[in-house]
Amino acid sequence: MEKKIGCYICTGCGINEALNVKTLTATVAKEQKIPLVKNHAMLCSPEGVEMIRNDMTSEGVNTFLIAACSPRVHVETFRFGTPMIERVNLREFAVWGQPDAATDKDAKEDAQALGEDLLRFGCIRVKKMNNPEPFEDPGLSKTILVVGGGYSGMTAAKGAADAGYDVVLVEKAVELGGKVAKMHRLTPANPSLPGKDGLQETGAKALCLAVETHPRIKLYKNARVKQTVGAPGLFDVTIDQAGSDTVERIGSIVVATGYNLYDPNKLGHLGYGASPDVITAWDFEQMAREGRIVRKSDGLPAKRVAFVQCAGSRDKNHLEYCSSTCCTVSMKQALYVIDQYKNEASTCVIYQEIRTPGQLEDFYRKAQNEGVVFVKGDVKQVAANSGGGVKVQVADKLLRGDESMEVDLLVLATGMTPNIDTTDPNVSSNLNLSDEERAKTVLNLDYRQGASLPSLKWGFPDSHYICFPYETRRTGIYVAGPARRPMGAASSATDAMGAALKAIQAVESISRGAAVHPRAGDLSYPSFRKEGCTQCKRCTEECPFGAINEDDKGNPQFNPTRCRRCGTCMGACPQKIISFANYSVDMIGAMIKGCEVPPAEDEKPRILVLACENDAYPALDMAGINRQKLNPYIRVIPVRCLGSVNLVWIADAMSTGYDGVMLLGCRHGDDYQCHFVRGSALAEIRLSKVAETLSRLQLDSARVRLTEINIMDVDRLPGLLDDFVKEVTALGEQPYKPF
Amino acid sequence: MKEFAFYPGCSSEKNASASNMENSVHHMCEMLGVKLKEIDDWNCCSASIGYAGGGHLPRLALTARNFALSKQQMGDSPVVASCAACWLALRETNERMHEEPGVKENLNTALKEAGLSYDGKLEVKHLVELLVDDAYVGFDALKAKVTKPLTGVKMAGYVGCQTNRPFGIAGDNYENPEYLDRMIEACGATAVPFPKKVACCGGALAFSENEKSCDLIKDILQSAVDNGAEVIVTPCPVCQLNVEVYQEKVNKLFGTNFAIPVVYYSQLFVLAWGGGWKKAALDQQVVPADVLKKFA
Amino acid sequence: MAYDLSFAKEVYKTSEVGYWIKMCMQCGVCAGSCPLGPHWEHSPRQLFQLVRAGKMEEVLKSDSMWMCTSCYNCIVRCPRGLPITHIVHGLARLAVEKGMADPKQPTRRFAVEVFWDNITSTGRVGEAGLTMKLYFIDGIGPGIQRGLEMKNQALGMLKTKRLNPIPFRSKIKGFAGFKAMLDKAFELEAKKESNA
Lengths: 739, 296, 196
Description:
heterotrimer; A: alpha/beta; Rossmann fold; FAD/NAD(P)-binding domain; seven-stranded mixed sheet; C: mainly alpha; Fumarate Reductase Iron-sulfur Protein, Chain B, domain 2
């Protein structure tokens, strides 16, 4: 279908007062040769939208350039059933973000130049834009695979099945239920509700039954996933059940493989091994389940029980992190003792800091009220008593001295360790885990970047935990429960439902050829010009989501349904052969070059700002909404992610005569906020290599800078821009300015 | 205005340490038309120190007897107290009778020995609560009566402890109650910022741990002076006594030279309403309040 | 041996609102809120932990409870809602009952030997008698000494008619009933303790 562009310039919200709309219109019509340009006093009004819709029928307009307010507002108003639309942010950037033009001639000139450049960018973008064809495949499946038949896995499976999706559940054990089914009781899920602060039945039996009998759940017990080939919607998963393989076509995957417990044999300093009466919380749970809370040494009743917190946790020699559940587990187990021995019970929790997040604070109160004593301190020495039980010496931080106590059982509350293969089994782990603990392959992915899910630290799968908690760095694969991070049963149930919903969202989006978040609904996906490829493998190595495999010759093989559409591959490609229908190296390059850079003698510098559309662009936009003054010399071009910034754009900017280039993107590093996980980090690495190129062009590398911005940085952003403009101007004349 | 049962407490007796409060309260209420009828034959509430000799039940029994007498003599009339400790004891006894199992029953068993009984249901008011509440008096009425505004005098509103904690006046903030400053302003005087507004003066420990208390009193005086106050205003008889009477001792201990008058809010009102020096009981100050003389 | 619960259980049962002690989470807000902070041996939270640790002697012989001015700062600030002031008063009373409080502790002496007798012998405080008994608690010599130290204060009060020079006061009218009531209350209190 022939592309017919219509450009609509709104003159409301002060645009008409601040800018010369006639000149703007001429820029679009005459200079950029857009055949249809119209103004409207209030484009977002029903009349304004009606005007556009009339042009769709009478003029055949199918591509829209809306020059009005921010693309973040009136999204629905200007939706015309096509992705072929571009919004030019005149209001926030060229009007509200600029000084009051009526009183300042210079400011008016600057604002006008800015408005014109913004329109040029918009015109070039729509001219270069193509309508993306959504990815389709007749073999797409909406079946959800759940790996792990414990509390989280069963909850996820049942949740997805109840929502009407076919589920395949794989459990390695002979029976469903996992660890929770082997527990005596659970801590209350909502202890703040009146009368709900007591211990709960696990409910595992009922849940197992519901899963076993669910018509939509296909169960593989005593089974494991042997291999996962393909991509979301098109996964072919080989399931090995007692030696015989079955292949299932799967849409998306929930991994709920639970956790391992830290090896108590490493806890000699806390008395493990000193006496049979020093046991782990898990062993104690089994005792309670059997209804026999007794000394292991002689089988006599264990009425005096002490629980040691952070046993091998929050300790740089063991697990560095908090498992978040041990405190409440010990409280629960102390209540078992009180329940069994009533007034004769004497229970004590030896802790560092009590951590009872959320409503569990009320469970802490409950435990205190029942008489559990809490002692803040370090276990210094544990020795077996000749008559059974143990003698414990504690450096008591509350009484400020060494105290000793005699107990029948000393229970070590050990932490949770990751149970999925986030680490390469061939590389020694910094977790101090035994081979056993280092998880076996759960999914065995046939991905160019490896068989396992990438980890950030401590072996738990990496995800953008602030915005997309269940996410992994493998699209369509979601992790729930303690496999994701240490958590208790109540949190795991919530987590499992969350992951099930994400899995459903994934199969539904994929069935429409659309991306999942953060570019939810995007129909574009990368394509490449094979003949230009030099098999450098940068794209296959750098994709944060492992979306690209390689063929035998090293050519990339794109998997559109694994792709999140960030464009990191496009930014990586030295040959500039990777592009999207509506986003390409050529398009942004042309926009950069489309800016009308004034000659040096005008003393009007130009700064190109490539702003990440996730946080940096909204922050700029909000500065405008707040009427903060944005430097009039900056020219903002939003990018999908800093990872999509191809270095050729820096060269384009310099040769066009910009005085400097600023990349605004999300924080990277261990506490990254990059919405595509690795994009801003990769941009930083690439940029570090640009200095050489710049010096060859006799340009100071200080002309290019990457600055981390988050969405809360609105107030400091205008100052940052002003400073950069000042610093760059101080570097002297940019030699590539037009005459 | 209806009549209230009144529990003055020991320090408000004739020739007792807070008789300046009692005298000014008497005149203030007369000028307002608030009728307070003293409970006949009331006994001591044992204040903040009674716990050690009286323990739990005997201590609460003291106050229960006062309630029972009030009920007998004045029916359902709310019991009004002007002393912080007395008011607190009343509030606490009611609360304990409702919230602690067995207390109500045991107290009535004890009361029976005196031929009395009490169900824990009489309403309790601090005199200040009547003044700040529009349903009874209210700030507008307090302001309207001013004929001699105490213009220009800087005062530190010293709320202290027991009129403020643990119950508080009219839902005011524990860390920064505002009613006393508003009372000062209502009299036309200036309330200065006063960081020691709710600090403790040592209370009854001024008797037994005098030097430790003087240390606290010194900080309170210093803060008032540092903030430019010429007068300290308080609602509490223990605060007034400690902060006023021990100034000489403080000066001796710490080499200071404090001589700042400490007066009751009731004295301010009587003065600002034109009641004069004697009705305001300002002739009963150990540290003379000369700065207020011109309003007499 | 620490953390034997028998003393704690006794306190929970017999000391005034002592059962609240188990709810303390040891945050220390009470310690930071107490005006006598520089002077006590154990902060409230430490007292509570000592109770839970079974350290009866350390608790009941501590002078910390006797530093309470009843300012109620700890009560209103305790994030766990413990009635700390009352708990501390209860522990002080328990120390008196068990005869473990330091006989020389000045606040104990004032509260138990002077104040309570003063108010219960007539029904109301006799301020002059109270003051004199306090001064002369250690005999004539130190009494005169203290009296002289406080001479100016007393004179100031006398001059302003805020001190009755006559140290004797008459009993309230219903004193007989008042006395009987208190005796009964003590009897009931003792019963509760013997239940422990």
